[in-house]
Amino acid sequence: MADVTIQHVAKAAGVSPSTVSNLLNGRAHLMLPETRQRVEQAIEELGYQPNRSARNLRTGRTRTIGLVVPSVGNPFWGTFARYVESAALAEGYNVLLCNSERDPNREQRYIEELWSDGIRGLVLCSSLPSLDHVSALMKRGLQMVAFDRTAQIGDPDTLVSISIDNTVGSELATTHLTGLGHQRLAFVSGALGSVNRKDRFRGFAAALERAGLPSEGTLWPGAAEQRFGDVESAELGRQAARELLSADEPPTGIVAINDMCALGVCRGVRDAGLEVAKDVSVVGFDDIVLADLYDPPLTTVRQPMQDMAAMAISELKARVEDSGTSHGRSLLLRPELIVRESTAPPRADR
Amino acid sequence: MADVTIQHVAKAAGVSPSTVSNLLNGRAHLMLPETRQRVEQAIEELGYQPNRSARNLRTGRTRTIGLVVPSVGNPFWGTFARYVESAALAEGYNVLLCNSERDPNREQRYIEELWSDGIRGLVLCSSLPSLDHVSALMKRGLQMVAFDRTAQIGDPDTLVSISIDNTVGSELATTHLTGLGHQRLAFVSGALGSVNRKDRFRGFAAALERAGLPSEGTLWPGAAEQRFGDVESAELGRQAARELLSADEPPTGIVAINDMCALGVCRGVRDAGLEVAKDVSVVGFDDIVLADLYDPPLTTVRQPMQDMAAMAISELKARVEDSGTSHGRSLLLRPELIVRESTAPPRADR
DNA sequence: TTCGTTCACTGTAACGTTGCAGTGACAGTA
DNA sequence: TACTGTCACTGCAACGTTACAGTGAACGAA
């Protein structure tokens, strides 16, 4: 119960707290080897762990960065969180992981809590188009990397954006379908609230245009007003597929906003008594682990997650440690189309 | 950059820091309404956020609990983390989420870091059979709930264990298969290192015995020495299915250690040119979101996650706040078999 | 008038750590 | 012998907050 403090260690080793502190902070050369050994032994025997609150208070620094994701219930974010954590650990940082559940209030509350915990570096995976709710803290010195969100006009000056080029990714996916000969395509998504969702639709429309196809009416209207979380997006895809496939001239190719949604679409295709690939081609986005395990394995657009996580951490580390007048920048990585078995040429009779 | 402290607020409002502190700590009745308003306005205008390190240092309390999971890359843990977080938030607590990656050193390191952050309540989802590495901290007052791990002989006195009855769950799954008429069953798992994996195999064997079937040779030997992480367990299932189904007398029913593994098994079944349910029945464990989305939807054993998360938090809260001489206990919840379409009677000709 | 009480606020001493500015002992130099 | 330097260590003040004890003004009662 009674915590072991640096004083207890000092007394046990017969030195002053300062000496213990010196040892703890890499100044072991300031003492005799035998003193050092006595102190180390005392630390060991008492099981002393420095009180981090006191240390943070005193030094003003923290070896912790914050990570805010929409939901770890989504394997995409879960996987990303692991990469970020590994990258941070390798740089000597800890990660504090928070779930915003795509709720702006919760997101803001978490960020303020991280700030008051002394955290000055943050990786934010926000669904929100505007960053107004954090710009005040950024002015005070919060360093931030926005992930999976391309830079916007009104963004804070020092913001770093790391993202794939969503427009290109979506074009890649869509062009794959048009290249296979599909003429009637649909885009399935929840409300296009976030920047990258808009970009993905833009890429989809651009690819259609390039193939000489109309883009009107290709956006599934079912979710326009709804707010689907990540877990529910599969259910949304299922519903969308059922509705789309019961139309007079159903689409033969469907581009989904992400893999969870695409898996739902595949399920909906089956619900409608059809077969994925043979009757309807489906493309996802993200390349989550399950994309390759699904039946049929999902054609999808892969994000280089590990690289992106490493970049996020190294940007943050540099900024938190230097705190020079580092300006914002934007890193757009190229996505990669992974062709598996959920896409095929359209059937001749459809 | 320059942080706003309670002193700045006090000066701006023309009061002492004590008065600001009183307002902050729910003692607003100690001041005039007009004073209160002045202070509130100053807080608002300066954007003051109390420094949590200082507060923790001073009070010795923390409104944060720790959550250590094997890997948020696994949707099972991701989902659980969300439930824990929601339950904690509802009780006024924050959650600090850590990934052990099933690495004992990393797990211990995280727990010690949580302790030195002033955290005194922890939900541990450990894969390790022994809790020796945390018992020292528990003696000093760390309150801990072990999740998904049944109580063991050598456990610390104050430990709370919350788990489903894994043996019963596995019996439920296996009896479902024998009830359908399956005679040749296999159990697919990575190394049976953890308590609950052993229990699940025990339940599997017990069900076989009850059905008058031999249990020798039913444990897939492929992973005995390997250490598979959660993400890789799907790959393991795939490999297991391929190997098992190429035998002379292949099993007609497979019980997998968890859903990710079961999904891998399904994929392996297809790799072998067979069909899930029709040729080989597959049962999983956990009922992750994807179980219902898979094709075919997976028959699996469901854990009442939300209830378990709420119980974990309320136990922890009571213990952290009272810190009376609360003794350990063990809560075993009953799992539920969810029958979907990955199981069917064996084919007559096999 | 004097005493006591209430009220609205403030002063102060911690909490555990850090890192600079000492301090005294001792050795080496002039 | 006196001075200078190095060495090994220590004293002290601060970081921002909290909560208890304390203060002085205003008012009511005897």
TrEMBL record, chains A, B:
Keyword DNA-binding included in the entry's annotation: yes
Alphabetized GO MF terms: DNA-binding transcription factor activity; transcription cis-regulatory region binding
Keyword Acetylation: no
Family annotation (InterPro entries): HTH_LacI, LacI/GalR-like_sensor, Lambda_DNA-bd_dom_sf, Peripla_BP_I
Keywords assigned by UniProt, alphabetized: DNA-binding, Transcription, Transcription regulation
All residue ranges annotated as the HTH lacI-type domain in the record: 4-59
Transmembrane annotation, as ranges: none
Gene3D superfamilies recorded: 3.40.50.2300, lambda repressor-like DNA-binding domains
Pfam family, one: Peripla_BP_3
Name this protein carries in UniProt: LacI family transcriptional regulator
